[in-house]
Amino acid sequence: MSNANNKIIHHLAVAVGFIGLLAWFYAGRQLGFLDWITLQMPAKYAGSGLMLGIMILMTPGFFIWARYNRWVEKRLQIKGIYYEDSYYKDDEKLKQAKRNKPS
Length: 103
Fold this sequence. Notes:
The chain has helices at 3-30, 33-39, 46-75, 83-88, 91-100. The protein is mostly helical. Helix 1 (3-30) runs antiparallel to helix 3 and helix 2 (33-39) packs antiparallel against helix 3.
């Protein structure tokens, strides 16, 4: 498979994942999770309750999104360095390890 095809497939896969992330949000909204969280708060803090509800609702969605993206990139053999990798590991050691990694 050519590199150009890989990029197109990757972009399509990311788009499908993003649609899944949107579906996750709307499913949580339709199930009444956001309304329920808002009702747990005093009326004057309803906006804060909604924001908290969105954060709680989307945390597992973003975790699944991240795992899905990593799976797609591994499957399509897309190589690169992730921002969070440099945060947790020494940059030079990470780059060296990725260069020496057998394909």
